[in-house]
Specification:
Elements: H1 2-7, H2 10-14, H3 22-33, E1 42-46, H4 52-64, E2 70-75, H5 108-117, E3 123-126, H6 132-146, E4 153-158, H7 163-173, E5 177-185, H8 192-204
Parallel strand pairs: 1-2, 1-4, 2-3, 4-5
Helix pairs in contact: 3-4, 6-7, 7-8
C-alpha cells in the first residue's frame, strides 16, 4: 500500500507486463531489517538513474532506523557508455545492454525533481561511473566530510549494467561495507559483463 501510494501501481508506471519496483522494496526491507540497530545508518545507490530505487531504499531506511541516517545516490546521468568484450555474448551485446550507448540516460534535473516531489532527503551526486578515479574521489570526499575513518554503509545497491563500471564499483565500495553490510547488485549474473565482474570479485575476495 505504501509503495502504491508513493509510486502508483507498477503497470501504471511501466506499462502492462513490465516489472515494477515492488520486489526491490521487499528485498531492501529484508536486508535492512536484519541489521543490528546501531548499523542502520547509511545506504548508497550507485547508478540511481531516475531515483526510483533510491526512494524505495529511503522508505525502508526511515521505517526501520531510529538513528541518524543518510542515503546517497550516485549516477553519471549519461547512460551506458563503457562496453568491454566481456559484456558480449557470442560477439553481441545481450539484453537491454544491446540497445547501445546512451541507454538509460536520465536527466539529473529530472531526478532531482522526482526526489523533491517526495520530500526526499537523499543526497544526489554526479560522478563518472566509467572512471574509477572519479568514484574514488567521491568516497574520499564523503570520508573527509564524516570527519573520521568510520565511514561505512549498511547497504550498497549497484545498478550500472556493464563490466567495467560494475568492477570499479565493487572494488571501491566493498571496503566501506560495515561488518553486517549487504551488497545488492541489480541484474546480477543475468547480464554477461555484470556476471563476469561479480565472479571476479568473489574469487578475489573469498573469506
Amino acid at each position: 500500500a505504501e509503495y502504491d501510494k508513493r509510486w502508483g501501481k507498477p503497470e501504471e508506471r511501466y506499462g502492462a507486463g513490465q516489472p515494477g519496483y515492488a520486489p526491490n522494496f521487499v528485498r531492501f526491507m529484508n536486508h535492512w531489517s536484519a541489521k543490528e540497530p546501531a548499523d542502520r545508518r547509511r545506504a548508497i545507490d550507485i547508478g540511481c538513474g531516475d531515483g526510483g530505487v533510491a526512494l524505495l531504499l529511503e522508505m525502508v531506511v526511515k521505517k526501520f532506523s531510529k538513528f541518524p541516517r543518510r542515503i546517497i545516490a550516485l549516477d553519471s546521468f549519461k547512460g551506458l557508455r563503457s562496453f568491454d568484450e566481456l559484456d558480449t555474448l557470442e560477439g553481441k551485446l545481450p539484453g537491454h545492454v544491446g540497445w547501445g550507448k546512451g541507454t538509460y540516460a536520465f536527466s539529473r534535473e529530472q531526478t532531482l525533481k522526482t526526489l523533491s516531489r517526495f520530500e526526499s532527503e537523499i543526497r544526489l551526486i554526479t560522478v563518472d561511473l566509467d572512471l574509477p578515479n572519479s568514484l574514488e574521489k567521491v568516497f574520499a570526499s564523503l570520508k573527509y566530510e564524516n570527519g573520521s575513518n568510520n565511514l561505512d554503509f549498511a547497504l550498497v545497491h549497484i545498478d550500472v549494467s556493464t563490466y567495467k563500471p560494475t568492477q570499479y564499483a565493487l572494488e571501491i565500495v566493498h571496503p566501506y561495507l560495515n561488518i553486517h553490510g549487504s551488497l545488492v547488485l541489480e541484474r546480477g549474473l543475468g547480464i554477461e559483463g555484470v556476471g563476469h565482474a561479480i565472479n571476479e570479485f568473489l574469487s578475489e575476495n573469498q573469506g
